[in-house]
Amino acid sequence: MMDLAWENKIFNQGYKLVAGVDEAGRGPLAGPVVAACVILDSNFKVGSDKLNLIKDSKKLTAKKREELFQVIEEYFLEIGVGICDNKTIDKINILQATFLAMKKSLGGLKQKPDFVLVDGGFKIPNYSSNQENIIRGDDLVFSIAAASIIAKVTRDKLMEKIHNEYPQYGFDKHKGYGTKLHLENLKKHGPCPIHRFSFGPVADARASRIN
Questions:
Q1: For the segment 17-58, what is each residue's pLDDT rounded down to a tens digit?
Q2: pTM of the entire predicted model
Q3: CATH code: domain of residue 148
Q4: Is 16:41 a contact under the CB 8 Å cutoff?
């Protein structure tokens, strides 16, 4: 069970609204990168049995993530989602697209957080609120773990829709990650418009089709 140790440390400094931010989809060869943020205030308590189940999305089954998505919508003050598509990723690179998706998720909120807890090795550049980045934040920080679930479920649903357009790649199974199945289908069919052409395996597959 995760506690609010990180969030309470921020609240004890006098901040009123804290957001946790995380992303899903930095590594795949296809599809968007999706960022999510969740907001809570100092009155928030992890007292519900449902909330106690929140943890890093990678440690949950797809079914459990879906269930907790609903719990997070019910208990948190607000949720934001930001998406950058594969064309943007190819244009500005995956790290910058991740930052942009994070800023989009925060920019869509009705209430601006006083402090942002960000998963990973970097703070969000050119963002005005105070923030702290935490490596392995999705495994250590309650609000970041909740954001990881929102981001993962949102992205998985997008990839399932993409699968309906390009069923030959098996996006419903691997969600765009470079699995054996995906690489085999990429080699067989070549890249489709949803692939990230700046990523090595996609560029190689494209080149082999041209040659």
A1: 999 999 999 999 999 999 999 999 999 988 777 899 999 999
A2: 0.95
A3: 3.30.420.10
A4: yes
